[in-house]
Amino acid sequence: MSSTQDTLWGHPKGLYVLFFTEMWERFSYYGMRALLVFYMVKQMMFSHADASRIYGLYTGLVYFTPFFGGLLADRILGQRRSVILGGALMALGHFVMVFESLFYPALALLVLGNGAFKPNISTQVGNLYAHGDARRDQAFSIFYVGINLGAFMAPLICGTLGEIYGWHYGFGAAGVGMLAGLCIYLWGRRWLAPDNLDRQAGPAEETTAPAGLDGNEGRRILGLAVICTVVMLFWIAFEQQGNTIAMWADADTDRHILGWEVPATWFQSLNPMFIFLFTPLITTFWAWQARSKREPSSPAKMAIGCFLLAAAFLVLVPSADEFAADGVPVSMLWLVGFNAVLTLGELFLSPVGLSLVTKLAPARMVSMLMGVWFMAQFAGNYLAGYVGRFWDLWPAEHFFLLAAGIAGLAGIIILTLLKPLKRAMGS
Question: Which residue from 72, 92, 68 is spatially nearest to 80, judged by alpha carbons?
Fold first, then answer.
């Protein structure tokens, strides 16, 4: 049997199994997400306010259930079986979405499946590396590229099928993507690290309940909890991409190139495209800072990410002023600039947060605490749907300023708490 120590390009082969599994899972998620608001408004005839509320609730619950999926894996099923269960439920959910009468049961299957899948695929990346292995941050950056490769393809394929040939073709393609990811995972299990549950079956101290945390572990978990609470504000602004920004692209942006109209869903591929372009630059920049002993701490990077997200929404304010003045759809270049700056903010926050959880969480709690990280995204996504209801009530420029203010507030709070957070995390 192959060992998890088998390497390819300097990393365990298991990393690439997880890379492609997550790539296809994200293809399925973002393919469905690209269509969801348009489907509700144009096919099911929901008002935008109702569609925004359902969108926020769905995307929020997607990040709420991983906490319980983490508990399930840590205490009963283990990471591998949880991933397989989650993938199967999500594939079923995408195929059920094809039937309009089963819209809500389909969403429920997707939410439950994601809860079992999401925290445990990320945890397995960290499990491939020993404590203190310097390759861990780089591994999560590679893994994050897989996430965004799937997110890049999804609006182009599922969005095109849905908008041009019929919504159900788009949802069906998302289901096929999830099945592809599940097959890759089953094929490559021999290169993955043992489940934490199996490794804890030995010495008694390894199975100590969370109540037995020592002081250092308690401080680290408290620091993570504080970070997760503040990061919720980041996600409120960030998740306008699939909701209000999608509506801005559809109704208020000139999408014509030489007489051809770009599908509105395609603009949701800009963010992952910039992930590919910027990730090597950002990781090289951090490596240079590390050699100079000037690399920011993880919380400082996350504060920078919040300020960059705020700047992204400020980029759109002039376009909203222009639209308000003459009522003519604005250039799509504004959305390109918005997504470029937004992506920089995401790279300073999201993969850094994933890596931070696996560094600081006790092994016996790592999936559960990964679920806590996603719980912040649950709250942010749910509130993003609530905030999105103001889109129909306020001028666009006021809405963009609100989103910028929410993201900027998160950055200010993290900077204010920077020293105690670094002490709590032992950095």
Answer: 72
Span 204-228, pLDDT tens digits: 444 444 456 666 778 888 888 888 8
First to last CA, the chain: 39
Residue 331's SS3 state is strand
> What is the Cα–Cα distance from 355 to 319, expressed in whole angstroms?
36
Helices 167-187 and 135-154 pack at an angle, to 10 degrees, of 150
Contacts of 266 (CB under 8 A, 6+ apart): 155, 156, 159, 160
Domain 12-192+212-424 has CATH 1.20.1250.20: yes
Tell me how many degrees the CA angle 112-166-389 measures, rounded to the nearest 5: 60
Mean of the per-residue pLDDT values for the chain? 86
Asked if 427 and 221 touch (Cβ cutoff 8 Å), the reply is no
User: How far is it, in rounded angstroms, from Cα 427 to Cα 421?
Assistant: 9
Residue 25 contacts residue 339 (beta carbons within 8 Å) = no
140: nearest Cα among 370, 425, 296: 370
Per-residue pLDDT of 244-253, as tens digits, reads 998 899 989 9
Dist CA 106 CA 251 (whole Å): 28
Question: pTM of whole model > 0.85?
Answer: no
**H or E, element range at 11:** strand 11-12
Residues 33 and 57: their CA atoms lie apart, in Å, by 13
Amino acid at the residue 196: N
Instruction: Please write the tens of the pLDDT for every residue from 284-305.
Output: 888 888 888 888 888 899 999 9
Task: Note the pLDDT tens digit of each residue in 323-334.
Answer: 877 778 899 999
